[in-house]
Amino acid sequence: MSKNLKIFLGISYLFILFVFLYFILGTIQINRLDDFTYYKELQSNIDIYVSSNVLINLFYFFFFGVVWVILLGFGSPILIISGILFGHWLGTAISVLSLSVGALTLYSIGNFFFRDLVKTSLEERFSKYITLFQKNEFFYFFIYRFVGGLGIPFFMQNLLPILFGMKKRNYFLSSCFGFIPSFFIMNTIGAGLNIYIEQASNFSMTNLILSKEIYIPILMFISLIILSLFIKKKFFND
Questions:
Q1: Distance from CA of residue 46 to its chain's centroid?
Q2: 33 within a domain of the structure (yes/no)
């Protein structure tokens, strides 16, 4: 990746992050951060704001998610936020769509402008996967997404298919389907946090963890990790 591109992406990423933090911090009362009733007020205000025009807010979130991925952002915070804002079902749908479109856009940009650079930087490191993916790119990329990208940073996951020239249609669909299990779990945790804040009269970490809205998705997440390790060993280990 060229120095100028790194500078451009870095500045763009920091600008968006600054605008986001400025918007958030501008609405937060710092002196009330230790007051649980303040979080209940925020939760109520957010619910009212989102429900007042769900379609517009879905569009805003979709756009932000796409740009975030293009600028090499990581996905976990977005998944929690989408669960808080839209619930586990709608949150999963919009996060899967926005991050899949963002990933496809980043892949397209990388494949068009920086194909040789990506190959030079990544081909030797991930050479053992190239032949495997070429056997059945949709199936193996779906598994790759399902197991969390084999621990590879998210932005590198999105660029890796450049090495074997993956078709955009297969890239998008396998990403969508592969994202669903983990995205659903993270959105469910976000939705659970929203429900807990709405229903609880005071904050208790023990009660939070033991609430079914939190411990069930945590158990699901642990189960997914175990399943992912088994799948990784079966399909990707030498």
A1: 21
A2: no
